[in-house]
């Protein structure tokens, strides 16, 4: 015979089970909200391995490519050759001579051989970039899609760069820290912490980062807190484009660095507050918290860099988990103060 106490206990157990079930379901919703079906989304991307085409072509063919590329993606092409490679593309004879000299350089020749061997097909990257652009198009229906994705040897002038219409990728940046040529590279400004990030796994992430940065949500030049949330939105949009990728990769952290950030989130936030950083607008101060570096200024040397970006990303994720029906297109316009006020750390 059921007593009143037994009935109450049964009800309590059922309520507890229901609460646990709801927690699991909500957690699943948070994790899956970005994992969408994009099979019906159509995007058309044109992939061009400009570096391979130049390297493996005759002199006369190189001149034809020079004219064609100047018409097809002029801004990116001129930037890469004029600023990065220091090659004049305006006069055929000068271009031909300078490009030939460039490829004959012993270091460049070795670098090219490494690029040709390691990036012969790029089929996986092309597929992942296409899928990522489909995700962006799903979330941002009015967003432009790049006309061309161009692979270059930029001689370490950039890993990825976007114009209004195209994206360039410096393949040499993804040869890997274990590559002997990268280990021995002594180009000024190519610090060890930058070499540590020269991993092929970041290639697709960097392409999407550049496109989102140029098209959707570039960080502002105002207060620390506003920049923090702007970076957080940008990273959240990259996550939306690459929902199957590890979160460490989205942040461009190693697994160890990401773990440190996750375990010290409260400590990082407390430091920002205690140092009264949130409403500072000094660009030099902000450099230490948003830019690439060996670590983050004022925090332990084992900390990752760009922890201002990381906290902004956590703020945005927290806000979106609480506003699960909000489209990503609407998130762009949510004021930074509203997102920051909703941020709570257990």
Task: Produce a short descriptive summary.
The protein is mainly alpha-helical. It folds into two domains: 46-214, no CATH class; 221-341, no CATH class. It has helices spanning 4-32, 50-55, 59-72, 74-84, 92-104, 106-118, 123-139, 180-184, 192-195, 203-215, 224-241, 247-251, 255-263, 265-274, 283-290, 307-322, 328-331, 336-341; strands at residues 46-49, 148-152, 160-162, 166-170.
Task: Characterise the protein shown here.
This protein is mostly helical and 346 residues long. The protein has two domains: 169 residues, no CATH class; 121 residues, no CATH class. 58% of the residues lie in helices and 5% in strands. It has 18 helices and four strands. The protein has a four-stranded mixed beta sheet, with helices on both faces. The longest helix has 29 residues. It is globular and about 65 Å long. The chain starts with a helix and ends in a 5-residue tail after the last helix. About 3% of the residues have low confidence.
């Amino acid at each position: 015979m059921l007593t009143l106490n037994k009935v109450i206990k049964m009800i309590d157990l059922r309520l507890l089970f229901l609460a646990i079930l709801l927690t699991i379901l909500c957690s699943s919703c948070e994790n899956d909200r970005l994992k969408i079906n994009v099979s019906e989304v159509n995007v058309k991307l044109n992939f061009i391995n400009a570096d391979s085409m130049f390297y493996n072509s005759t002199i006369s063919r190189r001149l034809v490519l020079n004219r064609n590329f100047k018409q097809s993606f002029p801004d990116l092409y001129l930037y890469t050759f004029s600023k990065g490679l220091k090659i004049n593309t305006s006069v055929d004879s000068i271009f031909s001579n300078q490009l030939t000299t460039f490829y004959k350089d012993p270091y460049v020749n070795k670098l090219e051989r490494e690029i040709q061997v390691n990036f012969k097909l790029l089929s996986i990257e092309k597929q992942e970039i296409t899928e990522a652009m489909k995700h962006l198009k799903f979330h941002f229906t009015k967003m432009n899609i790049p006309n061309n994705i161009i692979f270059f040897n930029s001689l370490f002038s950039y890993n990825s760069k976007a114009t209004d219409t195209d994206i360039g990728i410096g393949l040499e940046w993804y040869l890997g820290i274990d590559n002997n040529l990268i280990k021995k590279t002594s180009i000024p400004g190519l610090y060890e912490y930058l070499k540590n990030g020269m991993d092929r796994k970041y290639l697709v992430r960097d392409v999407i980062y550049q496109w989102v940065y140029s098209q959707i949500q570039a960080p502002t030049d105002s207060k620390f807190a506003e920049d923090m949330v702007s970076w957080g939105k940008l990273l959240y949009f990259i996550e939306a484009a690459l929902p199957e990728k590890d979160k460490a990769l989205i942040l461009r952290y190693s697994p160890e660095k990401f773990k440190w950030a996750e375990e010290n989130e409260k400590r990082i936030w407390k430091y920002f507050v205690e140092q009264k950083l949130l409403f500072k607008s000094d660009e030099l101060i902000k450099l230490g918290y948003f830019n690439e570096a060996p670590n983050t200024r004022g925090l332990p040397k084992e900390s990752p860099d760009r922890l201002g970006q990381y906290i902004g990303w956590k703020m945005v994720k927290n806000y979106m988990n609480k506003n699960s029906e909000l489209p990503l297109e609407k998130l762009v316009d949510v004021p930074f103060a509203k997102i920051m006020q909703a941020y709570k750390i257990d």
